Amino acid sequence: MRRAIYPGRFQPFHLGHLSVVKWSLERVDELIILIGSAQESHTLSNPFTAGERVEMIRKAMNNEGIPGDRYYLIPIPDILMNNVWAYHVRMYVPSFQTVVARNPLVLRLFREAGNDILVPPSFQREKYNSTLIRKYIITGEEWSDLVPNEVYTFIKSIKGDERLREITGTDKR
Ligand SMILES: Nc1ncnc2c1ncn2[C@@H]1O[C@H](COP(=O)(O)OP(=O)(O)OP(=O)(O)O)[C@@H](O)[C@H]1O
Ligand SMILES: NC(=O)c1ccc[n+]([C@@H]2O[C@H](COP(=O)(O)O)[C@@H](O)[C@H]2O)c1
Question: What is the predicted pLDDT for the residue at 91?
Fold first, then answer.
């Protein structure tokens, strides 16, 4: 049984992330989706709480028909010491052999800790990246086609778009 871990902040979870998840599940039996920077919320770079990210990802996975026994969703707060982060992560999650990532620091830290690495292809990264989506939410440009439908509906339902505009001072009220 091969289990991999896929770390990200998922602020928000977009169609590129979903493609990475599907790509990974074609190669491993189980995927641990590590929701990083779990302590962060209500900021420009990290508008959503860890719990909200759990919810939006699970809704997207359900809608895709990805069975719940093929993945874990585990939020983990950051720590100050990069050097021991991979070991910190190990403490919170089921055992894994492989790491799925494109983030160079994440790759470096897990490689040094002795893990195998799987680097997914870039799925239209110029379009599917959370920074751009957060920018579109703030400027009012269309972003619904960049995220799974359930993520869009969920963010609207918690007024996450209004939150982001409000904390950046671009809310019209
Ligand atoms: N479109 C994509 N195709 C392939 N990998 C991606 C894509 N978008 C993000 N990733 C990878 O998924 C992991 C988690 O990404 P992350 O949550 O930081 O998303 P992001 O879109 O890069 O967000 P941000 O712009 O806020 O940094 C990283 O390894 C990142 O390189
Ligand atoms: N020292 C640490 O706590 C440490 C080190 C490397 C990555 N991380 C986290 O892993 C996640 C990686 O995801 P991103 O690719 O979205 O940056 C982030 O939440 C990042 O903060 C944490």
Answer: 96
Q: Tens digit of pLDDT for each residue in 107-129? A: 999 999 999 999 999 999 999 99
Query: CA-CA distance, 89 to 36, in Å (whole number)?
Result: 10
Identify the structural domains of the chain with CATH numbers, from first to last: 3-167 (3.40.50.620)
User: Does residue 57's CB lie within 6 angstroms of at least one atom of ligand 1?
Assistant: no
**Cα separations (Å) of 144 from 38, 93, 112?**
24, 32, 38
Whole-angstrom distance, CA of residue 129 vs CA of residue 132? 6
pTM greater than 0.90 = yes
Cβ of 46 closer than 6 Å to ligand 1, yes or no, is: no
Cα–ligand 2 centroid distance for 39 (angstroms): 12
The amino acid occupying position 147 is V
Q: From ligand 1's centre to the CA of 173, what distance in Å?
A: 32
How many whole angstroms from 103 Cα to the centroid of ligand 2? 9
Q: What is the ipTM of this complex?
A: 0.98
